[in-house]
Request: fold
Amino acid sequence: MKIKFLKSGNGDAIVISVTDENGQPKNILVDGGREATYFDRIRRKGILKKEIDAIKLKNEVIDLLILSHIDNDHIEGLLKWFELDKNAPKFINEVWFNSGELIASSLNKSKNQDLNIFLADGSNVFTGVDEGIEFQEFLKKHGLSQDSLIKKGYRWEGHGLSFDILTPTQKQLEDLLELYHEDTGDIKYTAAKNDWSTNLSDIISAENKPSFRFRQDRSEKNGSSITSLVTYKNKRFLLLADSHPKAVCNALKDLGYTEENPVRVEFMQVSHHGSKANNNKELFDLIDTENYIISTDSTGHGHPHKITIARIAAKNPNATIYSNYEVVVDNLLTEQDKAEFPDLEVKLISEFNIK
Reply:
């Protein structure tokens, strides 16, 4: 099995290619990254379009498309694909997407109009605007929308894989439906510098003080992320999108994992591109791995935050942190970090192979 972490700006786009029990090739696409991941504004093909075209050339399809949640850095590439490729629906077998409409109907509650997702008519793609075609209507039109919510406790088996869904919980979906309001505080409109010049040992010392308090991400959109513990031939890996750590921790505990008996995985996709508010000590204590994957070019909020790297290093000083962008690999660690944590590595990754 190959898992590709596409260069998608400060977003996520993951292509999983696997051979099922019958020897048939299967493809799973998780999120679509920024608009340029598919096609940029000066008409250059993005890596997502190249991957999709390559799959088509092999007479294969996207057997499962998972949209983890509705943030721009996860959805824009998909919307651009749908906008430009009118044959896209014929190329997709199944879609997982907890749309606002599906949440409302499943919970028997009123719709939240701010959760509408649209396809732009022109060259630009937006979410949460009052024009164009609703994404969920597009899926329904082509018979691609699912009948039930994808949420904690759901287990899916197919294509030689099993997915144990960790989040969202029903409460997180209710919060998205009832509390979310579109605003311009999105990563698309704000930017922050990274904090990579801070030394890991200084961060670890500060976090060990009794006065330190972890502050969890409060975004309803991020909290609604579809996250999975995926199993392939008795090997596991974690796809955590932009999830909230406390909900993921609770789900892992409900599956029987503890700090003394952590879940063994080949790798974990670090939540929210390494944000300090989406990765706490408890989460890393519940996971046994040497490999931590962070997808971002560090634009936007300056991810990954150095405190997340410090939490990984404190837990596992022999860890390997993978990024799909050279800027992160080349600049994440200070010279002092390298001296104090000589076995901590930061490497470039494009794909991860699981045999």
